[in-house]
Write a structure and sequence with these properties.
heterotrimer; A: mainly alpha; two-stranded antiparallel ribbon; B: mainly alpha; 15 helices
Chain lengths: ~325, ~375, ~500
Amino acid sequence: MTQEQILLGLASVLAAAAPVLFAVIGETISERAGVINLSMNGTILLTAMGGFAVALRTNSLLLGFLTGMLIGALVALIVAFSSITLKQSQVAVGFVLALLCRDLAYFLGNPYMNVPGPRLTVIPVPWLASLPYVGTLFFNHTVITYLSFVMIFLAWAWIFKTRPGLMLQGIGERPAAAFVRGANVNRMRYLYTVLGGALIGLAGPAYSLSVKAGWAGTISGLDGIGWIALSITIFGGWNPLRAAFGSYLFAFLQWLGLVLQARLPNIPSQVLQVAPFPLMILTLLLVNIGDAEWVARTLATLPEGVRRLLIRLLRVLRSSPPAALGVPFESE
Amino acid sequence: MNRSPHTPSRKRIDWITPLFQLAALLLALLFTTLMLLAVGAPPLQAYLNILKGAFSNVNSVANMLVVWAPLLLTTVGVLITFSAGLWNIGVEGQVTLGAIFTTWVLRLLQESALPPWLIILLAMLAGMLGGAVWAALAGALKTFGGVNEIFGGLGLNFVATALTLWLIFGPWKRPGTGSMSGTLPFPETLWLPTLSGLRLSPWSLALALLALAAVYLLLRGTRFGLRLKAVGKNMRAAYLLGIPTWQHMMASFLLCGLLAGLAGALQVTAVYHRLIPSISSGYGFLGLLVAMLVNYQAIWAAPVALFFAALNIGSIQLPIVLRLDSSLAGVLQGLLVLFVLLVEGARQQIMKRLRPPDESVPVEERT
Amino acid sequence: MDVTLHDIHKTFGRVHANVGITLHVPAGTIQGILGENGAGKSTLMKILSGFIRADRGEIRLDGRPVVIHSPSDAIRHGVGMLHQDPLDFPPMRVLDNFILGRHGGLSLGRAAARRDFRQLAEQFGFALDPEAYVDALTVGERQQLEILRLLWLGARVLIFDEPTTGISAAQKEKLFAALRLLAEQGRTVLFVSHKLEDVEGLCHKIAVLRQGQLVGEVRPPYKTALLVEMMFGKNIVTGERAPAEPREVTLHLDSLSAEDNRLAVRNVSLSVRGGEVIGLAGMEGSGQGLFMRAICGLTRPTGGRIRVGGRDLTGRSYLSFKRHGVAFLPAARLEEGLVPGLNLTEHFVLAEEQRGFFVNWEAGRALARQRIGDFNIRGAPETTVESLSGGNQQRALLALLRLPLTLLLLEHPTRGLDIESTIYIWSKLRERCAQGTSILFISSDLEEILQYSDRVLVFFSGRVTPPLEAAALTSDRLGELIGGKGWPEKGRER
């Protein structure tokens, strides 16, 4: 493999991760406010189809992306309404929506199956694109990939560096304390869930209008992405930077699978493409295991030095969810 | 008489609930109709087509029952985990592992001198074991690793899919190159016997009905079932009442895994006669939907699962006759469950507002 | 700021939590609010701080009537409250906690906030690192953070709800110094407590509440006896009790220690004989709950041994204690004791551990009917537990206990019950004692402690008295001990 090929490959990893990134960041924002949007897998499919169909009909890519955001926001609104206003289980409603939206996408998308349609073109950033290495890697992409770069830092800065972002953290962590500090907890939860849904809704068109252009129904290969994005959200510890790392790692492993497939013809490609999943479980385990009671008990029996080391390791890996995730809030 | 002060109001609620459920059904139909109109399809014709597709002849009814058997198995399986308050979303993977284990034993023994019925029996038992192993993993991740069963289960679903693909394209591939159409079919001697001329095996039906009866009894009539319910409804109080809680959660995972594994075994021995990539046919997730729709009551599982199976089979003809995608069935199923959930939530909120506040908080003695 | 509460009324269902309370607190005053649990202190303070609205009455700040809609509204009027469990965000940094809730632009303005924080902290002598995480702080430090935050938001009236619970002596000194400084600055401090020593040493005047009413106001010099009488009412006459027959020792504790994140109970030694009743007195959260959970295996003790009926059960699980005849009835009946959604028959079947795989519903219903009759529960075998009234839930919990028991542990066995139920429940508990069961119970009702106990352990901030003979104990003495008075100096005890 030449250096050039590797560089192009890595650039393609950055592009392929863009849709996942939108979904993960959207979910992160929603969960930071305390609402799990489990519908993601269906939302991505429905917005991929809807965005593609609208872009095809209107011949406007922008309208395609906006449609995706609108659908994502609407689905999130249902989750918010049923969990915040009706106080139903977020998991139940989200799960139903995940299946419903998927089937809706297949049903409504039938006429658009395998129809050639518009797609985003690569727009090299003037001057920067010609830089060695960096240019190929970061400045030779579609608009949506650039947007994904920006989004990571935007979301991170919003959550950790602004006043409303700080309140967002508070709402998911301890709604009662946020309420005392003047937050309208449930209105904020609505707002952030819908906003997060709109971001998740960008993921679909990012596939159907860019990364995997077109709509191919059940063989689009998009079914499952949403569930992965959900695990990456946890792996990301509700921090956009760590979530971005997770998304790139996932895209990189998939790309590596394709590369290795050419080298190792004995291993079927499908296997390498799903290789990241067991890894995801392992990371979920590592992220959570520090909280288990028997771990604390076992650690207590180990010699001091080993214990210190292990505790430090677990602390680095560990990511605690927002304490009020999934818990409804009622002010007295 | 010594009666609870709430008995009268409870009666009042009892006739309101079905009204709300009817409203949910109507809303789901309304939305589906609107959607059909939106894509320019004649709604009435579409519904009639589904009905015809499911009930027109013996063949289609038999096909419906072919779907019904594994769906009923996964449904009653997740009813057990729901009882213990667990969201066993990993049931898909448990079905898949059941299919893999069954295929594995069939492959091992197909050349042996054992009588075919024994091979099938062993293979099906292995399938149940496979489902249970996968469920035990999700349970262990939950109990010992602190991984929420939803996320652990989803991850294990992917691993199960990966394992299937690897087997189909790797060690168990057809002569030549592997293909998405699955492994080489088993000889007909290793098929679960079917009714003549139909794809339906009476054995599948019998096993599914047996499982339904067993789970109904388990949850209704056994001490174990009662303890599971207590754990699911209030884990803390259950522990103080002397119930070992994590052991019961683990057991509910195992039992669900056995049933899901059996569903997978049927997919191999009675339906596909080989391992294919999407061997679970989504029956795990569909079973979760059915369980939610019947409000976690085993008694309604059979008719509702049958209704879902009818939708699935009835919609197969849609692409040919009306050029509509067969996923209409899934849309209708999803809308139905969604509206039942929403309407139930609305009902609870309305009831809460109607009820005088003093009655909802029984603090002191009332005479 | 001058605070006036005028004729405040508040009812919850049938409980009249505040009955026409009128109180005037001039600016620069440290006002003590004294009363036992349930006297209505918290309700009054929650009304002033905007958490709940009064049914009737008026709040005046500097003479102007105000309507306070929410806690953030209260802050806008200059009223801030520090909760017993500080309402902050443990996984976040001190500085971010400080900033959160203050209005401003998009940017956090960390630099300016840090400067203000340092300045304020210095003024009060608080050594807080703005970059530390709150979950690494002690409760006392979290209080300090809240004080600074409220002052930064412009609070001129500060309400402290039991602030000396769970903080060290040194931190208490610091807190009191800060409160005095606040008063000197012309701010108004409302200090809610049940600790006599604290209010006596700190407050310019003390208002005593009992059963929702303001009993009266007291100014220094304070007489402890008077305060105790105002808090708990008339001196209680101890009930007649037959001397317990000397039986076998059922529970033996050998310097038992237990800890949670708030406090530690250390080195408690105790021998309880069959049929004996031990009352655990003390204000809530003084360590008695922790102690009780440690002796039934729900909390792992940090030291010492527990022997039940001669068998060493130290470090065993609750289920193992249960097998050896120990039962625990929690105070939170619907949260920990019963399973909402299941009916009485199902509860009896669960508790009775019938033999066999299948439930014998017939036998279960018969048992339920019998126990419902025995315990006079107003409900049917099919009644779900959540639709029972509190008293009937408590009767159901007692009815669920198996025979025979070695040791019965009860948290607030009669809380929220009317007098008839209370007497009934104690008659049932006495029956148990006659069968040789030892009882340990927690109660914040002095009368109940004195009337039903053979011996009493008093808890105060994790400290425990040696067992006191109830017959030789007066309610005055008990009230003082509960309020933290008359304890031996630390270090000399035991």
